Amino acid sequence: MASRTYQAFLIGIVCIAFILTSGPTMVKAEVLKPTYVCELPCFGGVLKESICNTVCLKKGYTKGGSCREGACCCKLNG
């Protein structure tokens, strides 16, 4: 009777040891920096891409901008 108790205990210890020695299981999530600032609606029909790009350049965003989901998004300089 005592040997069965020790067997379960030892199997539990061995399982815990395998889990701990298998290495880290959690992956650290990387926080991504925003690359666009969206603040204006995209107007202009066919020319909306070029209008949005021009507006962003005039606001000081050196990389310009593009329309994304109906909004004019300026690319961040950094």
TrEMBL record:
Signal recorded as keyword: yes
Domain of life: Eukaryota
Signal peptide: 1-29
Keywords associated with the record: Signal
Protein name: LCR
